[in-house]
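Researcher: I need the complex structure. Ligand is adenosine-5'-triphosphate. Inputs:
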Amino acid sequence: MATDLTLHNEQGAGVRAQDLTVRRGNEVLFKALNFELQAGQLVWLRGSNGSGKTSLLRVIAGLSRPDGGQLSWGGQPLAQSEDYKARLVYMGHANALKDDLTALEALHFMTTVHGRSCSAERMEAALRRMGVHHRRKLPVRMLSQGQRRRVALARLALEERPGFWVLDEPFDALDDAGLALVQQLFVENVQRGGTVLFTSHIPVRPDGVALQELRLEGTRK
Ligand SMILES: Nc1ncnc2c1ncn2[C@@H]1O[C@H](COP(=O)(O)OP(=O)(O)OP(=O)(O)O)[C@@H](O)[C@H]1O
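Model: Output:
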């Protein structure tokens, strides 16, 4: 039997998952999962430890393949959609910052790797917004965990287009002010017509947009 987690929203195209099945080893994490993620949605992917949230995010980001079912964007397979690839911003659980680079260099490296290269002034402004500008010349290895997270998340502060953000535990290691900053970035992306799909074990309550939930609980068969 299919599990329908469709989130209803009428604005524009989005990601559609049909009968999605993912296994890890011998374990079926979820089976025949159906949902849509559309423009203007802020979606909290929830589920207990090991329920398959990271695995689902990786599949949506195109980093691994589902064992069954399809993912599409505007009727086209997700993996073949240039529009989807251009909108996708995926951030995994790890910060993916190079320890020996300074914070500014690490952000520059990250944006270049992801094809989002921009001016030094804009990167400095993003680091300032994330409250780590005063640490921009320090090597990443000398930053605290929360500061590293803020540098990595500065990538989101550089985005100006309506993006499709897929974020695994973005709030990890952040203090209350950091949490508020990142939620504000979510709201801005959603308000310009983007989508944010994220996991978090910390309850969040962004102001100004509706928060929807996609629950993986009970989807195993
Ligand atoms: N490469 C792998 N090989 C085998 N099993 C894996 C692999 N990666 C993940 N798993 C298993 O898949 C299940 C789901 O893992 P996943 O990381 O997707 O869960 P999660 O919901 O993100 O968990 P958490 O809340 O703890 O971060 C776990 O039981 C895990 O052990």
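Model: Summary of the prediction. The chain is about 30% helix and 25% strand.
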